[in-house]
Design a protein that fits this description.
Number of strands: 10
Largest sheet: 8 strands, mixed
Oligomer: single chain
Structural class: alpha+beta
Number of helices: 12
Strand content: 15-25%
Distance between the termini: 75 Å
Helix content: 40-55%
Order of helices and strands: HHHHEHEHEEEHEHEEHEEHHH
Shape: globular
C-alpha cells in the first residue's frame, strides 16, 4: 500500500529523476515466495538450457534408447512403419534427445503394421532377456534385468471432421466418450509373458486377447463412422486415450527419420503441430515434473549395476537378445 501511494505521488512530477526518487521512498517491490518449484523455473530458467538428465534417470533413458534401437532395427528389417509419440516429440523439438524427466518411450503403429508386428515378434519374444505385456492395444516390451521398457500403441485411420477446429474436436471427443463407455470398463485380458511360459500357453492368450480387441475395434470404427467428415484422421485404438491425441493424417505421415540423441528414428511429419495439439506450449515444465513410472522407482545399487551392464553391451549383443538369437 505504501509503495502504491508513493508511485501515485510521483506521477505528476516533471522529471524522471524526481519521479524515481519519490518512487524509491515507497520501498522495494515485495515478491511473494514461490508456492511451487515451477514458479521458480518459469521465472529464472531458459528451458532450452536445462541440463540433460543425470544419475539414475540418465542411465534409465540410455537403456530405454538401446531397447528402442533394437526395436527400430527389427521394424526396419521387417518393413514395419512406426512413428515416435509422446514425450519424445517434445524432446526432439527442445533437445533432439529425451527431456530431462522422461523415463519411458512410446511409439505408434497403424493397425496394419501393429498386427504384423505382433505376428513377427511372437517368434522371438518372450525370451530369456525380455518379457512382454499386452493389454488394451498396448504392447510393452520389458528388459528383465534393467526394466527398460518400450510401449507400442496401435492407431487407425478414420474419416472425421477437422480435428483441429473446435466443432470437429467436439464431435470427435463425443465419439471417443461413447467408445470409452462401451469398452473402457470391459475386462480386457491383461497378461505378462515370460520365458517360463510355454509357447502354446502364450498362443492361447494371444488368440483370446486378439478376439477381444477385434470386437472393440469394430465398436470403435462404428462409433467414428457415424460422425461423418472428410478429413483423414489418426485415431488412437486404445481406450484410455484423450481427445488431444487425435491428429490429421498429414501431421503424422509421411514419417521421416530424424536425429534423436545418437540415433536416427522415425518421427511424425510435423512434430511441432503434434506437440501443440497434445500439450500446447511445450516450453514449460509439466506440473508432474518429477513423476516416474513403476519401473524407474528402484534406485538400488543392483539396479545401477544391471543398467551399466546393459549399456556396456554391443549393438549385436542387444539385438541378439531382442530377437532371441534368431537374427
Amino acid at each position: 500500500m505504501k509503495r502504491t501511494l508513493f508511485r501515485i505521488l510521483a506521477f505528476p512530477l516533471p522529471t524522471r529523476n524526481m519521479r524515481n526518487y519519490v518512487r524509491r521512498l515507497g520501498g522495494p517491490k515485495i515478491i511473494p515466495p514461490a508456492k511451487h518449484i515451477t514458479d521458480v523455473l518459469y521465472a529464472s530458467i531458459d528451458i532450452a538450457g536445462v541440463p540433460r538428465a543425470r544419475g539414475f534417470m540418465r542411465y534409465v533413458q540410455q537403456a530405454n534408447l538401446r531397447l528402442l534401437w533394437a526395436f527400430d532395427k527389427f521394424a526396419t528389417e521387417n518393413h514395419l512403419e512406426y512413428f515416435m509419440i509422446g514425450g519424445a516429440i517434445a524432446g526432439l523439438i527442445r533437445y533432439s534427445a529425451c527431456v530431462p524427466w522422461d523415463d519411458d518411450i512410446d511409439v505408434g503403429m497403424t493397425a496394419e503394421n501393429y498386427t504384423k508386428f505382433l505376428q513377427l515378434i511372437r517368434k522371438t519374444l518372450p525370451n530369456n532377456e525380455y518379457s512382454l505385456m499386452l493389454t488394451s492395444n498396448v504392447f510393452r516390451i520389458v528388459h528383465n534385468k534393467t526394466k527398460a521398457f518400450l510401449d507400442i500403441l496401435r492407431y487407425g485411420v478414420q474419416k472425421t471432421p477437422d480435428c483441429y477446429k473446435q466443432d470437429g474436436a467436439t464431435k470427435i471427443s463425443h465419439a471417443q466418450n461413447i467408445f470409452n463407455k462401451t469398452t473402457q470398463n470391459k475386462p480386457f485380458l491383461k497378461f505378462y509373458a515370460t520365458a517360463e511360459m510355454s509357447a502354446s500357453e502364450i498362443s492361447q492368450i494371444y488368440a483370446k486377447l486378439y478376439n477381444q480387441h477385434t470386437d472393440a475395434l469394430q465398436t470403435q470404427n462404428a462409433t467414428f463412422a457415424n460422425i461423418g467428415g472428410t478429413n483423414k484422421t489418426i485415431i488412437p485404438l486404445y481406450t484410455d486415450c484423450k481427445p488431444s491425441e487425435f491428429y490429421s493424417f498429414n501431421t503424422i505421415f509421411p514419417v521421416s527419420r530424424k536425429k534423436f540423441d545418437k540415433y536416427e528414428l522415425y518421427f511424425p511429419n510435423d512434430p511441432e503441430l503434434y506437440a501443440t495439439k497434445c500439450w500446447g506450449d511445450i516450453w514449460k515444465f509439466p506440473p508432474d515434473l518429477f513423476r516416474t513410472h513403476e519401473y524407474t522407482k528402484d534406485l538400488s545399487p543392483q539396479k545401477l549395476i544391471e543398467l551399466r551392464k546393459y549399456l556396456a553391451m554391443s549393438d549385436d549383443e542387444i539385438y541378439n537378445g531382442f530377437t532371441g538369437g534368431t537374427k
